[in-house]
Amino acid sequence: MTTEPDLSSTAAKLRHQLTAQLAADGRLRSPAWRAAVETVPRHEFVLCFYRETDDPGLTTWTPVTADLVGVEEWLRQAYADDTLITQFDGQEIDWTDPKPIRGAHPTSSSTLPTLVVHMLEELRLHDGMTVMEIGTGTGYSAALMCHRLGPDRVTSIETDPDVAARARDALNRCGYAPRLVVGDGLVGHPEGAHYDRTIATCGVRHIPHTWVQQTRPGGLILATLRGWMRSLGLVRLTVDREGRAEGRFIDGDPSFMIARQQDAPKSLGMIPAPDDGASRSTPYGPDMLTAAGSGFVAQLAMPSARFFSMPADDGTPCTYVLDGRNESFAVLTPKSDDEWNVRQGGPAALWDLLENALHTWRAAGSPKPTEFGVTVAAESQWVWLGTPDGPSWRLPTPAQSTDGSA
Ligand SMILES: C[S@@+](CC[C@H](N)C(=O)[O-])C[C@H]1O[C@@H](n2cnc3c(N)ncnc32)[C@H](O)[C@@H]1O
């Protein structure tokens, strides 16, 4: 049996190992963050969680608690460099009798420690600064910031009341009392403004302008932009005096769960009938949607699209790209080894938008996402290539059209 002192010393040893590993990987660089990771007991924030297993087929998650796997194994997993899932489909888990879960959609977690420290380092915090975090989750990253800055300088917002309550308990157990807000982090928390830094640990389709308004001029916003097809990546924006924010994508490709209020509608939209739309040939096949560089470009070009593959009645493989907001579609079928047929319809010619964006990207030498940047203004926001006046693609803010062109 593991006694209390054993638990604390085992946890401290595992924490030390995790800290050393994150430092050796080059993610944990500054002494202040190193001290925070060495000190904050992650296990207090993940008393019960699910961990992905390697089974083939549909993703399966297995429950982990000290009772289920033993204290030492629970601690080992709590201090592994892994994402630990704490909620699925917005529903609380019955921890009196937890079962393995398959085919569900994670909605809250303790983020991968590598990514947590990468973001905190990239946030460029200094003593005396204030920070607003969107997505409290388990409260672990908020606790690290409390250790670094002092709890009275940390505001953290969580949209899910049950998740927020658990985070509050864990933070209290560790002696931290930051300002915790239950609500939609997309509107921020004006009562605490202006913040020196704003950080989001859920993904967003566009940067809420409220974050720009609530971050002081010269302050930074760090967030993951993502679409309904994939993540675009981490951006760090500097706020200016005119109420705009601008900056580049930085290294790291987190695939954060999307802000709940921006999640894709359940329905994909109308599936086009076999004779709908106009057909032509294209050299670009469906792999353009999934390959690393072109997938990023596809997400920019078709910000509200989603896709799936399904054979037609005669067995022909078909990939459907659908924009449910305006009923635009592109259906791809193979024609020869290096040619495809695309059938398009609706107000936005989706495959034309993708091809134009791919031509621009390839003409520039197929640059990495870090060659792209973002400008956020009150009325619109866009991703640009190279410089702010370079080729650009609009992000889907509520006031924008959704055809992807700037
Ligand atoms: C990846 S988890 C956060 C991880 C957390 N920072 C930690 O260290 O445990 C993302 C969280 O964002 C929350 N979330 C989603 N949409 C939100 C919103 N609009 N405002 C605030 N929180 C939101 C989710 O409920 C979830 O708990």
UniProtKB/TrEMBL annotation:
Biological-process GO terms, alphabetical: methylation
CDD domains: AdoMet_MTases
Keyword Methyltransferase carried by entry: yes
The keyword Signal is annotated on this UniProt entry: no
Matches recorded under InterPro entries: Methyltr_grasp, PCMT, SAM-dependent_MTases_sf
Pfam families tied to this protein: PCMT (PF01135)
Protein name: Protein-L-isoaspartate O-methyltransferase
Gene field: tgmC
